[in-house]
Amino acid sequence: MRKRKMDKKVTIIIPVYNAGKNIDHCIKSILNQTSKDFKVLLINDGSTDDSLQRIINYANEYPEIFTVLDQKNSGVVETRHRGIREADTEYIMFMDNDDFIDPDYVEVLLNEIEKNNADIVITGYRRANFEKVLFTIPAYDDIWTRYRITAPWARIFRRDFIVKNNVSFLKTYIGEDTYFNLNAYLYTDKIKGLNYVGYNWYYNDESVSNVKQRGLKPECDVLIVLNEVDKIYKNKRDEYLNYFMTRHIIWYLLFSGVDASSKRFNEEYKRLFKWLNEHNYKLSIPFYSKKIKSEPLRNRLIVSIFDKLSKLRLVGLFSRIYCKGKE
């Protein structure tokens, strides 16, 4: 087994794919960090624009920070897995190539994970473009924050913990990061939620992730990841997972279903709620419970109301009002 060279403490893993328009903003936010105790793996995943040349230029100018890896297009899952393998630091972070971070981001997260001897530190994030912040999702040091924020970014991991427990992303169209984090939670209680926001998730209305999830497309089957989560939590289910599964499906229906037809919405609603019933997932935590107080009241009410509409068999009527897609 080769020794890992640890001259820095953190590796930021960034899959790069056709990011020519926004990669400069991402990298400049990294160069503005107050901490210097990190390095960056920029993994070009078969880009067809000028992304590769752009990141090579940065690596040539800042060789002490950036390392460029080039590969045939393999998808974000395999690219992140490669980043984990190639990292030679005690801690790792993930970042998307459109996003940007506040100047103290690395410093705050690194200090927190070292201070608490944690395996994972979870923080909040902003949904933003280059002009304004659309909304902010804070994190708290409670159990529900672990389920509420399941992106791979806005957090820091102890690398050996990930490798030792073979924590991996699920190769699926959507939800690969949800599986990764819920899988990680099975192996540790050393998880810290931090009320800090320093990660900016860039909003692009025409991004691949936004476009592909519109209209309840069959290839975006949310049950692929939920079935896998159900398997690994078979003997460890609790009320938080029950709430998460139901909430996840309701939010998926509302987010993706608004652009679907009423008919398509109802087909998907029946299929997904049948799955919930067959697997005995229910809203086991009432919307007013302090256990989920870190979830905004508006969100809790939406989930609770949709669940009530389902029990009253009024989802069909709701869909005729809510859905914008053509029949």
TrEMBL record:
<dbReference type="Pfam" id="PF00535">
    <property type="entry name" value="Glycos_transf_2"/>
</dbReference>
<protein>
    <submittedName>
        <fullName>Glycosyltransferase family 2 protein</fullName>
    </submittedName>
</protein>
<dbReference type="GO" id="GO:0016758">
    <property type="term" value="F:hexosyltransferase activity"/>
</dbReference>
<dbReference type="InterPro" id="IPR029044">
    <property type="entry name" value="Nucleotide-diphossugar_trans"/>
</dbReference>
<feature type="domain" description="Glycosyltransferase 2-like">
    <location>
        <begin position="11"/>
        <end position="135"/>
    </location>
</feature>
<dbReference type="InterPro" id="IPR001173">
    <property type="entry name" value="Glyco_trans_2-like"/>
</dbReference>
